Amino acid sequence: MRFAWLAAGKDLRRRAADPAALLIWIGLPAIIGALMSLVGGGNGPAPKARLLLVDLDQTFVSGLVGQAGRQGQIAEFLEIESVAEDVGRRRMDEGDASAMLLIPPGFQDGVLREQPTELTLVTNPAQRILPGILEEGLRMAVEAAFYAQRLFGQPLREIVDGLPPGATGPPDDLVVSVSRSINQRLRGLEDTLLPPVITFEARTVETGGAQPNFGALFLPGLLLMAILFTAQGVSIDIWTEKTGGTLRRTLSAPQGAGAFLAGKLLGGVGIMMLAAVVAVALGLALFDVEIARVPLALAWTAYAGIVLLCYLVALQLVSSSARGGQLLSTLVVFPLIMIGGSFFPFEAMPAWMAGIGHWTPNGLAVVRMKEILFGGLDLSGLLISAAGIGLPAIAAFYLSVRRLKGAFATS
Which residues is 53 bridged to in the sheet? Predict the structure, then answer.
């Protein structure tokens, strides 16, 4: 065992002599994690659309347009400002708003008496999403006004026609008459509305642990991505030992190929743990990871790193050349990253793809890492996953030792 630790120390010293490669492996989770926090940082203010409202009708119905946009949850997304037409057009030319809505004269008569009328929406070409949302919202409002007119057009016409000149509100007798008319219309719709055709039921499902935000969904996969890249780089080192002539001399020592390969694995895991510490520190700083979860997360990372390194070293040893080994490992690593929850979280994948990715070695590691960092830990599931990826790794280690004792070192 002492020989294995000496071999691991030798590899770590050699890696320290190449700080550029070491910084790339260690800095990978920091760079991608920072980008994910910018993409998924949902704690900032939500975007708000500014709508300039030009009301050339100045009637009861046109006033309802502005009032509707200032009520409830709509006001959290939409800021409506009433302006004169010349001011609105000047500000739109300056790009000072998402859109301008122009309500023409005669709008009230057009709505209540089913006469042709036209709303004009001028959008800001420098913005894409917010003007598009406003345009779709206006289409929905037009549809809603059409059906509201069909149901309550007569009562609304009674309100408008019954308003005395200069009155701030309808008289009491008009209110009673209109209320009676609306009530009669609603009674006629009881067979459709009561009971409603569609019902809605909301349930709250409690799950253990803190719920990850958008950025945190990427953290477990990001960590395993860094481990895979590091394992690939470390596995290629076996060819460096061979071409440099040190492999044959090392294997001639009494300790043998098993101790040498174990040292390679320990040295590689030491490098992986540096990347893991950076990734977990990002989780603590950006994604609200609980510090009590860190030790088990690092232990699981070390175990997964040894397993993945066993697989990739075996691929190198069955290859005929260093270039062939690098190509073969790349052809394995990149599909694993894409489908194993490292590049895209399983939550964003199609169900069939996620179902396959859950059974890849890094996919199993990602699922358990997500539970360790953010969810309720299933100890039995963790042990089953450890056995599922660990037993093939033992076979890969045995195959690698056989190859080192056989044709690989002498060819």
Answer: 82, 101
Asked if 311 and 393 count as a contact pair (C-beta separation under 8 A), the reply is yes
User: Which token pair is 173?
Assistant: 């007798």
Place of tokens 């345009």: 135
| pLDDT classification of 42: cutoffs 50, 70, 90 | very low
Model confidence pLDDT, tens digit, residues 135-166:
888 888 777 777 666 666 666 666 666 666 65
Co-location of 263 and 357 in the same domain: yes
Domain of 10, in residue numbers: 2-41+213-410
How many degrees, rounded to 5, is the angle at CA 67 between CA 66 and CA 73?
105
Is residue 195 reached through a cis peptide bond, with omega within 30 degrees of 0 on the bond before it?
Answer: yes
Residue 79: other Cβ atoms inside 10 A: 15
* Assigned domain for 205 exists: no
Q: Are residues 89 and 34 in the same domain?
A: no
Report d(CA 47, CA 311) in Å as an integer.
47
